[in-house]
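[stage:ingest] chain + small molecule (zinc ion)
[stage:ingest] validated
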Amino acid sequence: MRYNAHAVHSRRRNAKRRGLAVLLGVVLTALVLVVGSGVILFTSASPAWSGLTHTQSVTRELAKTGLPGLLPVHLDELEVSRFLELINIEYSVENELDPDLLVNARTSVPTGGQDEWLHYRALQAMAELCTAARAEGIATVYVRSGYRSYDNQEQLYWEAEDKSFVQPAGHSEHQTGLAADIFPIARSEREEQQAVRWLAANSWRFGLILRYTEAKRRITGIAGEPWHFRYVGLPHSWYMFRYDLTLEEYIESLRQSGGYVVSLEGREYTVAYAMPQDGFILLPEGLDFDISRDNTGGYIATSGE
Ligand SMILES: [Zn+2]
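[stage:predict] done
[stage:export] C-alpha cells:
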C-alpha cells in the first residue's frame, strides 16, 4: 500500500474533528443540563429522506418551557382553529364541523362528477396540488370522499364488509372536512405508480400530508392508504414529511421540543406548542400566531403563514 501523507493527514484531521465534535457534544449537553430548558436548542436530527428538492433542516428547536419572551394569553381571546386536530381511534371528533366552512369541491377540482364537500382551506390546498400535478406532467388527479357527517360515517361503517379501511363514527378524519382521497387517472400501471409516488413526495408543498402509510400502521392503527391526504398547513406538512412522522408522532415531538423555527422558501415559520393552564397558554411575544387545538389537550401556534 502506498503511503499517502494526505490520507494520514486527513485521518488525523478527521480524528481531531471527531475529538472536537465529541467535546462540543459534551459542552452542549452540559450547557443544556446546566441552563435547563430555557435555552434554544440547535437540532441535528437526521433527515428521514434524501434527495428531492428540499434539504432544509429545522433552524432551531424551542425549549419546552421558560423561553424568554413568553406571554400568557387566555384561550377565550384567541380564535382557535382545528387544522392540527389529531383524529384516530383514541381521539375522536368532538364537534361537528361548522357547515359554513364547507365548500363544494366540484367547482375547483375534478371529483368524477360528484359533489364532494371540503373545508375551504383543504380544498384550496388540494386544488393547488391538482394543478401542480397537471402542470408538472404527472397525471390528472381527482378528489373523492371529502367531508362526511357523523351519520354518514356511521352508515358507511356498518355497511362496510371489510372494516380495515373504514373508521367507526367519530373517529374518521373525513369528518373534519380536512381530508380527502386523491387518485390519479393513469393510462398504465407504471404511470399510476409514478403519480402515486409524486403525490406522496409533493403533497407537503401544499400543506397536505399522506396520513396513513403501511410502514406506520402500528402508530396510526390504520393500514397503508396511499390515497388519503389530510390538510395540516405549512410548515407542519414539511416537518412531517422531512422527518417522516405521522401526525401522532409530530404532536408528541412538539410536546417534547416545545416547537421549532424553520425557513422555507424565504419565509420564516415559528411553531410553538402550549399546554393550557387555567385557560391560559404561553405564546412567544411579538409574533402573529394561528392557533389550533391538537385534540389531545394541547395547542399548536404557527406564525409565518
Ligand atoms: Zn380516506
